Amino acid sequence: MNPRRRHILGAMLAAPILAGRARAADRPLRIVVPFQSGSATDTAARIIGENLSRSLSRAVLIDNKPGAEGYIAVKEVMKADPSGDVLLFSTNTAITGINTFNAKPIYDPLTELSPIGRVGEFPFLLVVNTGLPFMTARAFVEYARANPKKLTYASGSSSSIVAMAQLMGMAGLELHHIPYNSEPPAVVDLVGGRIDVMFATPTTTMGFIKEGKVRALMTTTRTRLEQFPDVPTMTDSGYTNMPLVPWGGFFGPSGMRPELRRKLSAEINAVLAQPDVARALAVHHISISTSGPDEFSAYVKEQLALSLQVVKEHGLGRN
């Protein structure tokens, strides 16, 4: 074949592939988050999304869809095309919590979503309004035990409900529960004295702690947090570590091709391996623990079983 004709033919064959790549680059990658702006999940999504945008040379949009324990965000991703243009970044609240708190699972995250990869774990702090006299977790427990249902606790997610239920079960406490659809407004009410206590992430509380508006009594992490070396762990405070801890990861719509899931997982993991990303997440005490799609699917399955066990043990299920 004439070399010139071979070159023209090669260019013609390559044109659709190049055009497809160009179209993909022109479309933004939308990451749906089930909590409002300022939450730990939203903060992590923005850190990862900003760096993913640079590595992909593609715009990344964070789309906050709070409410219904994360199911609004989940449904948004479920109805999306499985092309990889729309992903869900969620903690276990919208994945395992919603499917074990209710008498029947709301949906199946292993078949109605496509697990892509785990990102890591999110810690909780037990925090109280500074108008209360408790300086230690022990003092809080002693007061709450002597005054059943007098203290109020807030929850911004099912994970925080589970965390408090585990502590109440261990310590024999009865607190009055006030639920919120996200953590930031709950923390605002904690600062304002309308709520007494809650489990919350360092992301939404560390500024208030440093300003003396909220007091941290202990952390759910296995070791003390670097930014709060004086805040004891649960073990330091005389309690065992909780079996169920918050985690986060990426999911796509169902029907996503396995090779696309693996490609997206590899791209996200490469971003998480960057030192500046790890440092940015570490500021919020988010510990990175990555996985591929198959490993993540197995992890989600295990977490569903563990969450159901904890919910049944503490009587958290709904009819």
Can you lay out the helices and strands and say which pair or pack?
Layout (H helix, E strand, L loop, with lengths): L2 H24 L2 E5 L6 H17 L3 E5 L6 H8 L7 E6 L5 H5 L11 E9 L3 E5 L7 H10 L5 E4 L2 H14 L4 E4 L3 H9 L5 E4 L1 H9 L3 E6 L27 E7 L4 H15 L2 H8 L4 E2 L4 H21 L6
Helix pairs in contact: 2-9
Report what the structure shows.
With 319 residues, the protein is an alpha/beta fold. The strands form 2 sheets. It has a 6-stranded mixed β-sheet, sandwiched between helices. The chain has a 5-stranded mixed β-sheet with strand order 7-6-8-5-9, sandwiched between helices. Helix 6 links the parallel strand 6 and strand 7. It is globular, with a radius of gyration of 22 Å.
Give the gist of this structure.
The chain has eleven helices and eleven strands. By secondary structure, the chain is an alpha/beta fold.
Helix content: 40-55%
Output the strand order for the largest sheet: 2-1-3-10-4-11
Whole-angstrom Rg: 22 Å
Distance between the termini: 73 Å
General form: globular
Taking pLDDT < 50 over at least 5 consecutive residues as the criterion, the unreliable ranges are 15-23
How many alpha or pi helices? Answer: 11
| Secondary structural class | alpha/beta
The string of secondary-structure elements, in order, is HEHEHEHEEHEHEHEHEEHHEH
Family: Belongs to the UPF0065 (bug) family.
Organism: Achromobacter mucicolens
Protein name: Tripartite tricarboxylate transporter substrate binding protein
Pfam family, one: TctC
